[in-house]
Amino acid sequence: MGIAREVFGDALPIAERYAEFLADAGVERGLIGPREADRLWERHLINCAVVAEAVPENARVVDIGSGAGLPGLVLAIVRPDLSIMLLEPLLRRTNFLNEAVELLGLDNVEVRRGRAEEVVKEFSVDVATARAVAPLERLARWALPLLRPGGELLAMKGERAAAEIEEAAPVLKRFGVRTTELLQVGQGKVEPPTTLVRVVAERAPRPAKGSKKRSS
After folding, report:
1. pTM of this structure
2. Cα 130 from Cα 63, distance rounded (Å)
3. What is the predicted pLDDT for the residue at 29?
4. Is 108:77 a contact under the CB 8 Å cutoff?
5. Cβ(176)–Cβ(208) under 8 Å?
6. What angle do CA 189, 109, 117 make, to 5 degrees?
7. Is 63:41 a contact under the CB 8 Å cutoff?
8. What pLDDT is attached to residue 35?
9. Would you state the pLDDT for residue 38?
10. Nearest-CA neighbor of 74 among 12, 3, 158, 1?
């Protein structure tokens, strides 16, 4: 809990309530596997909280396919300066998220039921986040249209992050992204550090077919 205290600071009591809710209702409703209950802090909460290192101050954020609120709800806890929309298509998950937001007393979070493609004309954000939602090739198609020019997609990825960047190259080129890079956050706080693919938006896609830094 020493690392959790360092990462969450004064917000640790809120994070603890969220962990309890995940271990109880989250497991009961199938949002978190039963085996995950004993490793919620390192594998989920701290792993997601360190993503905040890459998020600009006062950003407007959409968490795509938010599920149990990872990483969106965790970011809302650790960074009250952020305005966060948890975007999730499944009703049982949005019900869970609404209950969690109310339980934790978070006033910087909106829960929205829907898919990225359905809300693309309704708003634009500074940052889009996602964890275990889809390969980068598909995720980029959903996330990039939601970003303002210069906005960022921060996708939590695993060992295949570099390969996913290569596979997504045609889509990223079509969207004319400014930069694509691999970042590692949470050094010394979580092992292994959290890997992010950071994609910076440039412009809308052309009407066509379809850290360690790595340029695309």
Report:
1. 0.90
2. 6
3. 94
4. no
5. no
6. 100
7. no
8. 85
9. 81
10. 12
Distances (CA, A) of 47 to 105, 130, 200, 202: 22, 13, 22, 28
Task: Tell whether 131 is in a known binding site.
Answer: yes
How far apart CA 117 and CA 114 sit, in angstroms, is 8
119 touches 87 (CB < 8 A): yes
* Dihedral angle over CA of 60, 64, 67, 73, nearest 10: -10
Alpha helices in 50-149 (DSSP H): 72-78, 91-104, 116-119, 136-143
* pLDDT means over runs of 10, the chain (216 residues): 91 97 94 87 94 97 97 98 97 97 97 95 95 94 95 95 96 93 94 95 52 39
Look at residue 215 in the predicted model and tell me its pLDDT: 39
Residue with tokens 């919620």: 40
**Sole residue written with tokens 């959290």:** 194
- Judge if the upstream peptide bond of residue 192 is cis by omega within 30 degrees of 0: yes
148 annotated as belonging to a binding site for a ligand: no
* Residue the block writes with tokens 């290569």: 166
- What is the residue-wise DSSP string for 127-176? EEEEESSS-HHHHHHHHGGGEEEEEEEEEEE-TTHHHHHHHTHHHHHHTT
Pairing of strands 83-88, 125-131: unpaired
